[in-house]
Amino acid sequence: AIDIIIFDPPRKGLDRKIIETVSKAKIKKIIYASCDPITQKRDVELFLEKGYRFSFLQPFDMFPQTFHIENVIILEMK
Questions:
Q1: 9-40 pLDDT per residue, tens
Q2: Which domains does the chain have, with CATH numbers?
Q3: Which residue in the list 18, 31, 35, 74 is annotated as catalytic?
């Protein structure tokens, strides 16, 4: 069984089929890095509906002097 999975999708975020597959597999921990907080929020809300909870959130200023950030979120199965 897979205990942990790491995502770093393009700006468009994750495909809903991936979210469904991961949720059905009951993978214990998801590490989700994203450069687009809007699509990351959308995807994380879907994971929360599927029984995951937040355990960590950290923004990183990878591009100083710009408004761009990289977020890393860790979700865990309840």
A1: 999 999 999 999 999 999 999 999 999 999 99
A2: 4-77 (3.40.50.150)
A3: 35
